[in-house]
Amino acid sequence: MRHFTSRSNPLSRRSDRLETAAIRLFDAPLSILLWTLVATLVFLSGTKANAEEARPNVVLILVDDLGLHDIGIEGSKFHQTPHIDALAKRGMRFTAGYANCRVCSPSRASIQLGQFTARHGITDWIGAASGEKFNRGDELLPAEYVHELPAADVTLPEALREAGYQTFFAGKWHLGGDDSMPTDHGFNLNIGGHHRGSPPGGFFAPYNNPVMESGPDGESLTRRLGKETASFIEGQDDQPYFAMLSFYAVHGPIQTTQELWQKYRESAPAPPADGNRFMIDRTLPVRQIQDNPVYAGMMETLDDAVGDVMDAIEASGKADNTLVIFTGDNGGVSSGDAYSTSNLPHRGGKGRQWEGGLREPYYVSMPARIAAESTCDAPVIGSDLYPTILDVCDLPLRPQQHVDGRSLQTVLTGGEDESLEQRSLIWHYPHYGNQGGDPSSVIRTGDYKLIHYHLDSHDELYHLPTDIGEQNDLAAEQPERVASMRKELLAYLESVNAKFPQPDPRFDAEKAKQRWARAHGPSKERLEKREAAMLEPNWQPNKDWWGSTVD
Hints:
There is one protein chain. This protein is of the alpha/beta class. The protein is built from 16 helices and 19 strands. It has helices at 10-25, 30-53, 82-90, 104-113, 117-120, 156-162, 221-234, 258-267, 293-315, 355-358, 385-392, 409-412, 418-422, 479-495, 509-520, 522-533, and strands at 4-5, 57-63, 92-94, 97-98, 140-141, 166-171, 189-191, 241-246, 278-281, 284-287, 322-328, 362-365, 374-376, 380-381, 424-429, 440-445, 448-453, 459-463, 502-503.
């Protein structure tokens, strides 16, 4: 299966120019030929020396709770994201990009470590209750999990810092507390990263952030983090750098300015004919339409902040030699939390086991090596970024560390890597999500995806190319494939000593039935009214729009 397409390849263009120059030399007089030969040798020796000295810079942009279809280039007709769209066209867009988990902390750890979540043990967002501390009335006790990034592992920034890179972090960390901060795991500088997963002061100053000075009242946190990253880039000279911008946006609380709310209120699509923005999918209501004007305002601010960073890269004069990566940590919030977006045609969203909870924008650009407007449909995942970055930077790989990740450099530079199509991707979430997801583990092999549920050990099987919405369960029709994929999944989980949920002796079936009845009835009705009200001309969340306006 050919999965790489490109309009042009920078390496091929360079080869063509050299071939043309060589042909012309044969028609030149001997003196000119000798002079040109000497000059060429000098130029090539200088170019080689410069290439050895000028390692690529790396900018990794990670967005919190970003749905794939929140981006214009991925199909959103409501959100405006011109800067992100341009970034996607600047290099390679992976059409089957995945986060390592349906919630945040595990995915973030996988990027830092190059491993699937079951291996490093951070399988839920750090701070979530587990074992008997979890008492929501469900049938299983969520598994125990690791609560901070393991100190013994060599993180991506540590590997880069050892190679002489200046390392910078801004934004959301959520991978441990006082002894497990960004500066404890390889980052020289940290602005705004601490133990919490949502911004303590919201998205407008004052921020109440323990590791970042607040800006003027009403300043946007999202733009501030973009500008801090841009300032870092502008201040770099000869030393190569790794800058990771990890936005708190678009995680809740969803907040925007009055002006942006008004803009998107006026451009929102017509409501569904039956008035229902939500559909019950097994457990909770799930949003079916993108028309939340507050969330759309957050998306525009996010896009502007990305534009700030890209402008700084261009102004640096080193854009051709800067590797830029853009992705997210889990699917958009279509259920639970703020119920803020729709991930259709993918099913579900953050916290859920279907594609809407796992699919992400996944863009990689570097003009000197990666052709603009190229695409790749091989399945790729966050844990691939560690070996890919090392490989692109011509640094030794660390296969014992990034054991589950694969370098993408071959496909990024126009080659074929059939092994990417053949390998299996594995997700392990032995917990209940706040968004209605079930404790389950997932394996994707080729075009097929199997979901194994821990409550009763049943499986679902989907053929993604023909059923991207995961509506047609093929498990009963293909028992041999189910058995093979389940065997591989469980064997991997056993090999890494994965933790599993256990029955909760406190479970009361009648109380659980009543709880779900409330979610399917009165709670859905309140939700429908709340979301409809956001589009009314006189709607106002509070007296000062969460601090975005200052008297």
